[in-house]
Structures are given as C-alpha cells and as structure tokens.
Amino acid sequence: MTVSPPPEVPASPVPPVPEWHHSPGLTDYVTALAQMEARVDAIIAGTAGELVWLLEHPPLYTAGTSARREDLTDPGRFPVFEARRGGQYTYHGPGQRVVYVMLDLTRRGRDLRAFVQQLEAWVIETLAEFGLRGEIREGRVGVWITRPDRPPLPDGTPAEDKIAAIGIRLRKWVSFHGISINVEPELEHFSGIVPCGIREHGVTSLVDLGLPVSMADLDAALQRSFVRVFG
Asked: pTM, whole model, 2 decimals?
C-alpha cells in the first residue's frame, strides 16, 4: 500500500523589510498626514508595501484622542492639529526625529498591545546604542530617562524626563503615526502644553543629556535596532 505524505503546511508569511524614506528639511504636518493616509490606504489595497518614514516638522502641537483642553496652556503659540492618534498633546519641531510607521499588523500578529511594546522596545534598543537606559512606566506612555543628577520629587521618587513619545492609530490593522525622539529640539517649546498630560516630569533630549548625537547617527541606530526588534 502506498501512503501519501501529509500535505505540507505553508509557513506563515514573513513580512518583507519595509521601505525606509527620509524627508530632508521640515515637512508640513497637513501634507505629511495626507501622504501617510494615502500610503496606508495603498497598503490595505495591496498596491504598496510597508513604510518607515523619517522626518522633522516645523514647530507645532498635536492633540491625540485623549487630549484635554486645559493641557494646552499656550494655544496661540504654535499651530495645533487634531492628530486622530492615541494619546494627548505633544510637540513636534526641528531637532526632533519623527518616525511614522506604516506596518501591516495582519502580517505581524494582529496584537495591538504587543505592537506598542515593540515600538517601546525599538526606542529603548536605539537609545542603548548611545549608552542611555530608556525605561517605560506603567500608566505613562513613552520612554523615560531617570535623572539622578536632579533632586528627587517631593514623594522621594527619582526625577525622570521623557525623551520619546509614542502614539499610533490603526486602519484595518495597518498602523500609522508612530514615535518621536528628541535629538536637539528647543525644549522650552514643550512649555506650551502639558506633554502627554503629565505635569510632574519634564522632557529631555540626547543633546540635553550631553550626547553629541546627530540626526544621521540616530537614523542609523533606528534602522539597525528595527531589525533586532521587528525581525
């Protein structure tokens, strides 16, 4: 009797390496949002691949879906945009690397919590290349740096500053928006908002921490660490 071999089970599709695109100069926010949404629609339609987009914006504030009006403390300072991403108010401006990630989570597990954890791990891995220990905190979105060089808070906990923000949105399991990392922005510009609704902690940057990191240095580290975190 001839026994037929069992049918082969096809392997799960391995996501291809996303396209990486860098926009020099400053990119208008409305233009960026329109291009990002168009790319997401094309990914959903199967006519374009995934994209990681590196850029900088002119000074502006964006309001996420949880933004509270009282956290916009200087509404006339810079343009304010409804971002339709998760999170609260954040600042974007020159010297801050904004990374828009348009990834197909249908091919990457359809697990939103795991995806956010990957974004956090991506930032932490990237910062580690410059000798920084980035950390996450329960109830506080983003990546934080402990500041032993500063006095502790009134309750005795160490001072901490935020160095990276995370805010995403999904459309049919394709992500957009993403992360921002402070390289050398004007930190005083954050004073027009309560960043991410958190009053008791500040913000910092790579250069503020004494690291002479260029945007090109950060971009190279982001691309290396992306492979380690996302495969």
From this structure: 0.89
